[in-house]
Design a protein that fits this description.
single chain; about 200 residues; alpha/beta; Rossmann fold; thrh gene product, domain 2; 2 domains; 7-stranded mixed β-sheet; 9 helices; 7 strands; about 20% strand; globular
Length: about 200
């Protein structure tokens, strides 16, 4: 039995922090896991910038409300879910992901949560489990599933490399260069065809 594990941002929806960087006019917030492999370091740096500018959850959620899935993402996900079980495994947060899941047809997502003060300030974040993507894939394997994984960033590599089959999707030139053996795709049709091949 197979289960497909997909990253969210950069694969199915635009990068939330890049969209918020553009909306808020704070270019530093464009930095993502494509640039910084250490997620804890990246998030603590982001929270520092938000505090410095007096921005909180409400402002970010206002930007997220205007984000739509990437063109073709919902159709790709719908077809994939008609073929096999599919789980989105993301380092984003429930407070960010919920409106996006509605636009994607409410797929299953495993993600993290933010700690938010009464005034809306994001004071901390809680990771669901250490190395959440790799830990989730290994847990699925431990209960009898073969995993097929796809993602675009440094924090996706562990789950991709630990899976029966793994793919890069719309990744960076550096990541593709560092992992030349991983098939890399730019179009949903090509990724879907590669997954179908693994399912057959």
């Amino acid at each position: 039995m197979e289960v497909v594990c997909l990253d969210l941002e950069g694969v199915l929806v635009p990068e939330i922090w890049i969209a918020f960087s553009e909306a808020s006019g704070i270019p530093e917030l464009k930095r993502t896991t494509r640039d910084e492999p250490d997620y804890d370091k990246l998030m603590r740096w982001r929270l520092g910038i938000l505090k410095e500018h007096g921005l909180g959850l409400k402002e970010i959620q206002k930007t997220i409300a205007e984000i739509d899935p990437l063109e073709g993402a919902k159709e790709f996900l719908d077809e994939l879910r008609s073929l096999t079980q599919t789980i989105i495994i993301s380092d984003t947060f429930t407070q960010f992901a919920s409106p996006l899941m509605k636009k994607l047809g409410m797929p299953t997502i495993f993600c993290n949560s933010l700690v938010v003060a009464d005034n809306g300030e994001i004071t901390d974040f809680k990771m669901r489990i250490e190395k959440s993507k790799l830990s989730t894939v290994k847990a699925l394997q431990s209960i009898g599933y073969d995993t097929i994984a796809a993602g675009d960033s440094y924090n996706d590599l562990d789950m991709i490399l630990a899976s029966k089959a793994g793919f890069l999707f719309r990744s960076t030139e550096q990541i593709k260069k560092d992992h030349p053996k991983l098939p890399a795709f730019e179009e949903y049709g090509d990724l879907l065809a590669a997954i179908k091949k693994e399912l057959s």
